[in-house]
Amino acid sequence: MENNENAIVSTIELQVYFNEDSQKAHQIIAMESDIMRELGYRRISGPSYGEDTENTGINKITAKYQRIICDGDEI
What we know:
The chain has 75 residues and is an alpha+beta fold.
């Protein structure tokens, strides 16, 4: 990023919804984390667990990722 002033901070939030099989949800979160790291992102929060506020009985896992992208970078 030397002498590059045209950069952005990209933030992506990913959510996994599940109702019964939390093991499958954990596998999905692990896969998405690996993929995001391959793309140069780092996890800035999560995984955090909670309930879907609109649907009772549905749970979710949320994780946020961030990376700086500047001229010449490829994703």
